[in-house]
Amino acid sequence: MSDKIAYSRHGDIAVLTVQNPPVNALSQAVRQGLWDGMDRAEADDGVKAVLIVGEGRAFFAGADITEFGKPPMEPHLPVLINRIEASPLLVVASMHGVSLGGGLEVALGCHYRIAVPSARVGLPEVHLGLIPGAGGTQRMPRLTGVEAALDVMTTGRQVKADEAAKLGLIDEVRDGDPKQNGIDYAQSLLGAGAPRRPVSEMDPPAAIDWDGAFEAILARGRGQISPAWCVRAVQAGVEKPFAEGLAAERKIFMDLMATDQRQGMIHAFFSERAVGNLPELKGVEPRSLQHIGVIGGGTMGAGIATSALLSGFQVTLLEMTPEAGEAAHKRIAGNLSGALKRGKISQDKHDAILTSILTVVTNYDALSDVDLVIEAVFEEMSVKKKVFTELDRVCKKGAILASNTSYLDVNEIAACTKRPEDVIGLHFFSPAHVMKLLEIVVADKTAKDVVATGFELGKRMSKISVRAGVCDGFIGNRILSTYRTAADHMILDGASPYEIDKALEDFGFAMGPFAVADLAGLDIGWAVRKRKRAEGIDPRARDSSYADKLCEDGHFGQKTGKGYYDYSAGAKARVPNPDVMPLIEEERAKQGITPRDFTSEEIVRRYMAAMVNEAAKVVGEGIARRPLDVDMTLLFGYGFPRYRGGPLKWADIVGLPELLADMKEYQKEDPYFWQIAPLLEKLVAEGKTFDDLNKAAAA
Ligand code: T1G
Predict the structure, then answer these.
(1) d(CA 84, ligand 1 centre) in Å
(2) Which residues contact 47 (CB under 8 A, 6 or more apart)?
(3) Is the whole-model pTM more than 0.85?
């Protein structure tokens, strides 16, 4: 028997204990071990029941995702589960930690299920671009009904034990040791003469409006298809005999396994876990971190303070005046009441934070004892330098001095202190207590344990932390500025902001670039354009001033009610602002441009080519360590559709040679903007992909 399954006898109960740390993934060895364990129990004299239980922190976390994309190995999970269910013995599952995907499907193949109160169950396959592929779409609806089953499958959410019991997925919730619970429960079932109870033999549930559900869920997916296909699999389970339903589920599962979306989402799954693991930080201990200082209580400062408070840190926030301090306290209280409403914190915790854990001060000396301080003041170098000079004076030895700058040179900021090794950039995204992305900007002299402490902070704040080098805009904003410029060029050449937004929203972005600009505030882009013009723009660069005119007229987007769109009927009912197109046409005429038509496909290809090209430069220069760092930055900070995996995963799937060919075409029109990344040329020349670089970095 495989070493992944331990076999033991407890009276007339055979216990199969799963031992495949860290999360008992259902690898081939585990599946084979379960099969052999069932054979052994059925051949073991006196055995009347089998208990399946997991060792460690989970029952099963599902199929082994590292096996996906490789030739499937026997025993296949659906066949194994049918075998377990068909056993003449009573089979019981005792669940703790998570039972996800194939793990819950194993439990549904058992005749009875018991769980500890902290257990969570779910079918999250849609998060991997798949559907449940081992009977989950057939067995779950027979226990819960179609609606509840589709809710669990299409959201991929984890269901707590008590709710799962109410849904009929769990028969008994009992605190205690999972193995002992399972043995006692199986004993009581045997004692009560409980019958085997194969779920597959239960009557199928009532039907629903399948087409309506399919269309509604498809629309909700904004281009992601797997959630909607759960409906078709469940439908087959209701309309066909069990075996045929199971075959229909498997067909859909294997079709989805072959999709780009499955590739993109599994890339996102593993990259999300790899992005925080930097080889150079192996064995580097972070500094202790309990008391955090925040400078500036505006939207960003208040968001950062809120995120720290919600993550259990003590926070001291500094503002220039008592009035500004009060306003900051109010902003944080507003953020916390939202967390209270969403059940993220208790009333007691909420009150304790606002009365004692958060302190608002107006004197720098109050920061003398913090472990780390994050500055979030006005984005002006002279202001930053004043703040860091003060922090250098008051903060204790070993305190970390961090800037939330989104563009400015962290090396220059560090140079104005006597401890540049303790200076780092911690670039949060607004709203900082909601957005998952944290760019950790490592300056030339930043010490390794300071970087490690940045990642420790990110982990405790449940952020996706990405290491970035110092350059204008670091990883995210640098790439944003390039693909935004590509969009501006398409505007000059004939496309409208609304065509571009529609094309990118159909591609899967939550919002197109012009709607995003309206949300962030057009004054930010205006300030950047003014700064860049003051610094001097290369004469070969294309420029335009129509957006400046919009700002000069006081239209900054949502916050002023008008920008590219008119929001007078509300954000959700935005309509194009009629003042915009005349400004654009005037600009084209001024530049002597004859506008032309753009298809959605061309808009997406140019936009994405610009994004990929700049991303390849960012990786080539080492600003981002690996391509996956860029992918996670765009996924968690810039609304890139998760089912495409990120811009560089998308590029690998589309094909780097094809993309390079496009860029070479575009380069003929504008050789200055389309300077092709040397890394891209190199990868194409060597027949390699960005993923090859990820693999090399992990080796
Ligand atoms: N397969 C392989 N490795 C896995 C894994 C899995 N299913 N789940 C986790 N790991 C690895 C992970 O990469 C990490 O590795 C380590 O375990 C700890 O994970 C037929 C086909 C279970 C809630 O989608 O959601 O069943 O980085 O850092 O935050 O229908 O992992 O240390 O090298 O995430 O405590 C369905 C996926 C599969 C669950 C734990 N199951 N996993 O979270 O730790 S599809 C899932 C999770 C399926 C069937 C279909 C989470 C977790 P490393 P972690 P965590």
Answers:
(1) 23
(2) 9, 12, 13, 14, 41, 89
(3) yes
